[in-house]
Amino acid sequence: MKQTSSYGDPARFVTHLHVAKDCLDLPYTQEIMARANLPVTVIGERGVPEIDGDYPYNLSTGKRHLLLCRNRGVFFKPCPGTREYRCCDYQVLNIGMNCPMDCVYCILQAYLNNPWLSFFVNVEDLFGELDLALDAEPERFFRIGTGEFTDSLALDTLTHLSPRLVNFMAQRSNAVLELKSKSVNIANLEGLDHRGRTIVAWSLNSPPIMAREEIRTATLEERLQAAARCAGWGYKLAFHFDPIILHQGWQEGYRQTIGRLFAEIPAESIAWISMGALRYLPSLKKIAVERFPASRFFYQEFIDGLDGKRRYFRPQRVAMYRFIHDELRKHADPRTCIYFCMENDTIWQEVFGFVPEERGGLPAMLDRSLGWPR
Ligand code: SF4
Q1: What percent of the chain has pLDDT over 90?
Q2: CA 51 to CA 53: how far, in whole Å?
Q3: Is 134 among the domain residues?
Q4: Structural domain of residue 237, as residue ranges?
């Protein structure tokens, strides 16, 4: 199935701004309000946007509402990997919560308990925290991502956060930032002196999954064209086949996507490619099947993993990974690191023929793909 129609910029889905009173006078808040040109409600201390209905069933309406507020917690912390599965030692930079797109499998539906989108406008605190953390360990190499609790670029036409981040990262020698998206909001990345410190990444999937299960996201062709433009601006790229979902014609679907990827993108511009089969908290199934009754993939057979998430049975995961890995290896540059997000050593051995420890561990493998240590 080809995804032909495009929603365009997902930030268009936002129809109402809410602004925390203590942020109203910040220049950044004023800048976003002027750019958005949307109705604004000012929220007093401890107030929240009022959205009709109960969570999570009011998510479809809630995603139209964007709250500009302060992050009162920490901006920067390690990705919550688990002991049982190999994790890549990623650092999460928390720029906001929730996303205007709506993927059926989105874990945020089960993680969050507010239906609206939040964006943190106290960015001076964010950069202050980053400075402290990176200065404290100059010998360490940090891989940082903003796409853990939101999409990195989905609101960028409103916030213009990406050039601030890219310019900040360009000054740092011991870190890279990965901006991960399913949108093609890349206009703000053009013409920046990024110095190779920002990687632009897209999640990819089989065409029928992208068309049916990823609402308001960019089409495959749009994502690849945007990636090719970023490569032309000198950015390194990354791609994430995640979540890999079993569906009729899955081999053909993933083969098609991989063929299109390497037809559009110079292989040497890709730093890394990850693979992760569908995994989910049991509570997500109830939410997703009620919000998206036409989706069928949650009714397949799964096993409970050691981290409390459901996964396909091991032989099924291995079959899917082997197929996709073989297709990727036909085209990929030998320096591109192809890896698993959250899989165990048995799967690494069965699919890749080695475990990360033999190559210094997954974090070191990813760092090497960027030429670190120098
Ligand atoms: S793009 Fe990412 S964050 Fe947004 S709904 Fe889809 S999975 Fe969730």
Answers
A1: 90
A2: 7
A3: yes
A4: 12-369
